[in-house]
Design brief:
By secondary structure, this protein is an alpha+beta fold. It contains 12 helices and 24 strands. The strands form 9 sheets. A 4-stranded antiparallel β-sheet has the order 2-10-7-8. The protein has a 4-stranded antiparallel β-sheet with strand order 13-22-18-20, covered by helices on one side. A 3-stranded mixed β-sheet has the order 6-3-9. Helix 3 (114-133) packs across helix 10 (356-400) and helix 5 runs antiparallel to helix 10 (356-400). The longest helix is centred in the last third of the chain and has 45 residues, at 356-400. It starts with 5 loop residues before the first strand and ends with a helix.
Length: 433
């Protein structure tokens, strides 16, 4: 750290560090209009997205929640659930209130530029997330954590220069990230185009029940599950497109009854499909091929065991196409939140069925093209990870005093409001007294 910088606890620099509250706890209801009520989902990329606000409270509720009233210049920092969503409150969203997932920080402006503090908070959140990734239990940040956070305080002109340089670098990074994400979306379109082309031949159409045996899963009791055992239970969360995630919340049983084994024990090359999920997200209808022994099928997952007329991998690829999804979700039932598809709907789903040799050729054509997609997508994912690592590296250098060149620092010292941070803090202390 440079000689004209100081380190101080955020709680000593900000006059206000508190958090929001939930109006329903105090007997108030959310309504369709009124005072904006800000939740984590309303904050994206450092901004409150006004169009995304769907919860409002009355003026009475707003005035009763004095602690969580927002003011222009407040910094919001999410401290629960998704940690580290940060933004500056601006006048266009006021009046507004927020809940306890956000810390509200204010009263620091004479010492810290808002964007300089925001970037430090983002760096702080990254550290907390890394701790969690290593197995810690950190899924929230307390107000005490924030108040005790050591904050770097450079002279104001240096803060301005650092913020300007960070924003310049981040602008270039964001442009690159946007291009990478566009490429990801284009890959999704290309994958669908590959699948669509593969199944466009003049093939006979058959229903699934004419070429397979199908079976829904067994309603195992969660109280029977163990951490280890002879048979693993395949649940909804274990199935993703083309993949059985056996390490995802694994559950086992030791000695299932013979009739359970006979009916629900999966065989190699069975295709499993999830039957229940979130209706809005359509996060079900996922299919994968079984390639491990001793797997038992849980409820709301089904298996298809194909006859010699159909290669399981052929059906797997077809299940990823839009025509299959249209049929699958066309039979969807359930309430607004949860969607379900029954066994009869799957059994009567129509698929094109060429000869076995033609199926092999379709598989070969699909895999030759999708393997290229997989490699490109892997490169994109690696580039996105490197971009995030570079973002954190920039922040680290900024708060170590290594982001600005000596020439840039010398220019900062020529500005009219330059003074060492220790002098700034002492002056403000005297002014307040």
């Amino acid at each position: 750290m440079r000689e004209d910088w100081v380190v101080a606890q955020l709680g000593k620099l900000a006059t206000k560090i508190t958090k929001g509250s939930t109006p329903t706890t105090y007997g108030y209801k959310f309504q369709n209009e009124g005072v904006n009520f800000i939740k984590i989902e309303n904050v994206k990329n450092g901004f409150i997205m006004q169009d995304s606000i769907v919860n409002f409270i009355s003026e009475e509720a707003h005035n009763s929640q004095e602690r969580s009233k927002l003011q222009e210049g407040d910094i919001l920092f999410s401290i629960a659930g998704t940690i580290g969503e940060t933004c500056l409150v601006k006048s266009n969203i006021l009046p507004a209130n927020t809940n306890q997932a956000f810390a509200i920080i204010n009263g620091f402006n004479d010492i810290l530029l808002p964007q300089f503090l925001i970037r430090q908070l983002e760096s702080f959140a990254a550290v907390k997330i890394k701790l969690k990734a290593r197995g810690g239990a950190m899924n929230n940040v307390s107000l005490g954590d924030l108040k005790e956070l050591s904050v770097i305080v450079p002279p104001l002109p240096i803060q301005r220069a650092i913020v300007q340089k960070i924003e310049s670098y981040f602008g270039l990074l964001d442009k690159g990230i946007a291009e990478l994400k566009t490429a990801q979306e284009q890959l999704k379109i290309y994958r669908q185009a590959v699948l669509k082309k593969a199944f466009e031949g003049e093939y006979p159409l058959v229903t699934i029940d004419t070429i397979s045996f199908s079976q829904g899963g067994y309603a195992f009791k969660s109280s029977d599950f163990k951490e280890t055992g002879e048979y693993q239970i395949i649940k909804i969360g274990n199935v993703r497109p083309g993949l059985l995630r056996l390490n995802e919340s694994p559950a086992f049983v030791d000695k299932p009854e013979n009739n359970v084994l006979e009916k629900y024990l999966l065989r190699k090359d069975d295709v499993v499909i999830t039957l229940t999920g979130t209706r809005k997200k359509r996060d079900y209808g996922y299919t994968a091929i079984v390639n491990k022994p001793n797997l038992l099928l849980n409820q709301r997952v089904a298996y298809l065991r194909f006859s010699e007329k159909c290669i399981p991998k052929y059906f797997l690829y077809y299940s990823w196409t839009e025509p299959f999804k249209e049929q699958f979700f066309g039979s969807e039932t359930g309430n607004v939140g949860q969607g379900n598809v029954g066994m009869k709907s799957i059994q009567k789903t129509i698929i094109p069925l060429p000869s076995i040799n033609e199926q092999k050729q379709v598989i070969k054509e699909i895999e030759s093209r999708l393997s290229v997609c997989d490699k490109v997508e892997e490169n994109i994912s690696e580039a996105l990870e490197k971009a995030e690592a570079l973002r954190q590296s920039i922040l680290k250098k900024a708060f170590e005093g290594k982001l600005l060149s000596e020439e840039e620092i010398a220019q900062c010292k020529q500005e009219a409001d330059y003074e060492p941070a220790s002098v700034l803090l002492e002056r403000i202390k005297k002014e307040k007294n």
